[in-house]
Structures are given as structure tokens and as C-alpha cells.
Amino acid sequence: MAEIIRMPKMSDTMEEGVIAAWLKKVGDEVKPGDILAEVETDKATMELESYEEGVLLHIGVQEKDAVPVNGVIAIIGEKGENIDALLKEANNGENAPAEQKEDKPAAKEEKSEKAESSKSAEKIDTSDINATLITMPKMSDTMTEGVIASWLKKVGDEIKAGDIIAEVETDKATMELESYEDGTLLYIGVEAGDAVAIDGVIAVIGEKGADYETLIKAHAQKDDSAPAQEEKKDEESGPKTESKSAPSEIVASNNSTTSDGDRLKASPLAKKLASDKGIDISQVKGSGEGGRIIKRDVENFTPATAQAATAQASPAAPALGQESYSEEKVSQMRKVIAKRLAESKFTAPHFYLTMEINMDKAIEARKSMNEVSPVKISFNDMVIKAAAAALRQHPKVNSSWLGDKIRYNDHIHIGMAVAVEEGLLVPVIRFADSKSLSQISNEAKSLGGKAKNKELQPKDWEGNTFTISNLGMFGIDEFTAIINPPDACILAVGGIKETVVVKNGQMQVGNVMKVTLSCDHRVVDGAVGSAFLQTLKGLLEDPVRILI
């Protein structure tokens, strides 16, 4: 009997997965343990393993398409088995919740119109169209849209499997969009610099003369989020003529695009490459669409030639007092950071507790430990270890607000905020209270390097119960941090500053570090947070205690 293969939930934050590549095709024999496909989730690509034996009868998702968790991916069964009823049941099951929500407030006439429109959508036969839709893949659980940074191909170009057709900016990185199809680029649906919703049509690749308009129309009708009013208008007005002219309109708009005054137009990949090479990207001449600077322009850039060309083109200096500015679109990572931190700040009632800690003994202890430690121990490592030990004594701080209940975690996983070019990532040091300082130091360095190189796996960033943000190395004396959900608290650590302190009634020079604990008042009260800081202060002012 045929079995439906659905998208598994591969992480606690995963809502959708993207089929990166199919390793099996319809008609192939499949055995338990065989890898069916590669699935992109969050920041990792994982293998989808089959637990069924039989023949791959149906593939329901194209490569690079996003699939919601529990969505139908494929069907495995006996050779020649009829799966029409199973497909219908699966499709009805996926669409039922959305249809029920829409039908409840709607009148009977609207229900019948939706039923007729869905029937007409099912009647569209695209099996004989030798073309493939390229849609925006979902490259992380937080991604809602991607930005076409630049097109590397144009309409009419011959495409081979493996060719890079565009650069896509996501919330995590700027990635190259690779074609898995051979054919001609028949249609481009999005201009460079514009955002595309997940599963939105980017382009069409196929044989010359293929009826890609019908393919796009079929895709639109399958979109559950398309408003019913648009479907009704489509039926009343008949076949659209806009899609026929879409390719030529897009090409015309791309060809007519020029540099917008002094505004810099460059792909994020080109900007990063220029920054790494120490090149002033404003001196680079762009060869992309509309004069956009792309990767190869930076690679082929010669500073001497550019300076000579600039001197000839602009002999006169600009007038004094001239107003100017530059703008660039917000990266996907920055959008997600803004959304999540705004939700945390305006949902969780924050309050802040600041304390000074004398680090004289910690400085001496670190110097002594580094003489024998296999890895160099930092002050941040000592703070992580001390915080973990303090959390063991104050479990109410190691908690989460879950709406109708509070979760008190018995395990201690410390999130470590790491600054990367596009924003912040928070890798997690698990069971930090049971690890030695050298183990914490080694793991912190490894995770920090992975974060900056965007090599983190789901297990590296999930499950934090408490977070530490340290800006002391940037010369910051004191600051407050926004709570990192689902944690109830975050510790902001400033730098160690030599200052005058009073000991035994006498003034003397001491080394002081300020820490600020941001607390979610729904979970942690002032007395609880203060007791935690007192314990943390005691451990860092006498660091021998954290080794016990």
C-alpha cells in the first residue's frame, strides 16, 4: 500500500523546509535507509531518509521549493499502484484549515465560486509543457522573502544544470541561485534589487517557445494564499495578456536602468569581496544590469586604472556643502533581528539590575591558569563559567515564559552572542556548569569561528536557557541588552576598567567590571535577579570558587 512522505520537523524552530536536491526520481526503487533528497533548514542542509520500501511513485515538490512541516513531499508504493485517491486526500488535508477559515464567514455563493475556481485550477494540464518554474526557496526558518541581488543571466540565454543564474540575499547570507535544469531562460519575474516572497516565481527555464504563461497561471491558482477576489477577476476577464508581455517588459526595464545619480549599485557579494580586499567599491565600474557592480568587477579591478579614469572624468572637485546620502536595502538577517528584538522588547516587561565586580583576583587567576591551560582562557570564558555556577544556585533565573506556564530548566545552556557582518548569532554552550574553563574556552572559540563563517548547525544555536552579551572588548563600560527569547534573562558584560576603589577605608587602584542583568518581570522578580548577581559577583571576585 502506498505511503505518503511528509516534511519532517528537523528543529524546534522549523516551520518549512526547502528541497535542495532530489537524489531519487519517479520510478526509482527505494529501500529503507536510502536518501531521497537534501533538505535545507535554517542554516544547514540535511538528508531526508526513507523509512519505506517500494517505488517512488510521485514527487510533489520541485527542487528549490519550500514545503511546510508535515506537507506532502512524495509517495512511495508498489509499481503501477493507483495513487489518485491518496493524492486527493493529501491535498484536501493540507488545504482544509485555510478553506474552513475562509468558508465560515463567507456566503454560500462565495463557497460555490471558490469550488468552481478550484476545479478550474485542477483542470490546467501542465504535463506537456517542457519548462520549469524557478521559485524563491525558503533558506531559513525565519525567512519570509528573499532579495534578488543581481541577475547573472538574461532572457534568451542558454542555461545548463549547475549554472548560477542569480545572487539571492537572505536573512543569513548572500547565496548563489543554482539552476538544476537545462534549457533557455524564458522569463524573469523579478528585477534586481526587488524582494520576492517565499515560493514566488523568479524565473522560468525550458524549451524555446514553451507555454510558460500557462505554467505561471497554474502555479498562481495552486497558491492557497491568493485572494478569492483575484481568482474571480481572472475568470471574468478571461486569459491574461500581461504575462505574455512580461518577459519583454522586464528586459526593457532592465536595459533602461542606469546609475541613479551618485547612488552606489552593487551586489552584497561584491561589497563583501571589496571590503575583504580593501578596495573602495565606489571606484569600481559595474558591468551588471544597469551598471550594477558584481563579483567579477571587483576581481578584475585595477586601482591605478580606476584612479586615472576618475581623474579624467571628474577634474573638478565637488562644491563645498553639497548634500548627499546613500541608501541600501535592509538585509534579511537584519529584518529578522529587528522583528524578534522588537517582539521581545515590547512583549516582555524588561527591568535592569547593574552591579560592579572587582576583577583583581580574576586577573591574577587568569594569568596563573593560562600558564598551564591547553587553550588560552579569556575573561568571557570565566564569566560564562561563573554565570553557569550561579544559575545552578538560582534556578528561577534559568527559566522561560510560556504564556500559561513558566518552565524552570534543570539543564544550563549558555547562549553566547557573537557579532557577524550582517547582525548577531547566538551559538550555545551546552551544560556549561559541568564543563571546565578550558573546555568552555575551546568550545567558545570553535562556535565563534563557525558563527562568523556561517557554518553553524541547528544543534549549535538551539536550546539556550540563558544568554550572555559581552561588549567589553570594544571598550564599552556598561550597557543594557534586550532579552533573547525564550530566555527570561540576559547578562550584559562591560569592559574591565582600572579605577579608584575603597578598601578598608582607604582609596586604592582596582580593576572593576560592570554587568547588567536584563530580566523579564513576568518570570524573574527584582530580589531573585539581585541574589543571582550577588552570587555571580562572589564567584568572580574569588574565582577559585568556580573551580569547585
Automatic annotation (TrEMBL):
- Quaternary state and interactors: Forms a 24-polypeptide structural core with octahedral symmetry.
Q: Where is the Peripheral subunit-binding (PSBD) domain?
A: 265-302
Family designation:
Belongs to the 2-oxoacid dehydrogenase family.
Q: Which InterPro entries did the record assign?
A: 2-oxoA_DH_lipoyl-BS (IPR003016), 2-oxoacid_DH_actylTfrase (IPR001078), Biotin_lipoyl (IPR000089), CAT-like_dom_sf (IPR023213), E2/Pdx1 (IPR045257), E3-bd_dom_sf (IPR036625), LAT1 (IPR006257), PSBD (IPR004167)
Provide any one GO MF term from the record: dihydrolipoyllysine-residue acetyltransferase activity
The record's CDD domains line, in alphabetical order, gives:
lipoyl_domain (cd06849)
Q: So what does this thing catalyse?
A: N(6)-[(R)-dihydrolipoyl]-L-lysyl-[protein] + acetyl-CoA = N(6)-[(R)-S(8)-acetyldihydrolipoyl]-L-lysyl-[protein] + CoA
Cofactors: (R)-lipoate
Basic and acidic residues bias located where? 99-123, 219-243
- Gene3D superfamilies xref list: 2.40.50.100, Chloramphenicol acetyltransferase-like domain, E3-binding domain
- Whether S-adenosyl-L-methionine counts among this entry's keywords is no
Name the GO terms of the biological process aspect: pyruvate decarboxylation to acetyl-CoA
**Region annotated Disordered, chain positions:** 90-123, 219-264
**What's this protein's function?**
The pyruvate dehydrogenase complex catalyzes the overall conversion of pyruvate to acetyl-CoA and CO(2). It contains multiple copies of three enzymatic components: pyruvate dehydrogenase (E1), dihydrolipoamide acetyltransferase (E2) and lipoamide dehydrogenase (E3).
Which E.C. number(s) belong to this protein?
2.3.1.12
- Identify the taxonomic lineage of the organism of origin: Bacteria, Pseudomonadati, Bacteroidota, Cytophagia, Cytophagales
Full protein name: Acetyltransferase component of pyruvate dehydrogenase complex
Cofactor details (free text): Binds 2 lipoyl cofactors covalently.
Q: Does the keyword Acyltransferase apply?
A: yes
Annotated Gene Ontology cellular component terms: pyruvate dehydrogenase complex
Question: Which residue range or ranges hold the Lipoyl-binding domain?
Answer: 2-77, 131-206
Q: Which UniProt keywords apply?
A: Acyltransferase, Lipoyl, Pyruvate, Transferase
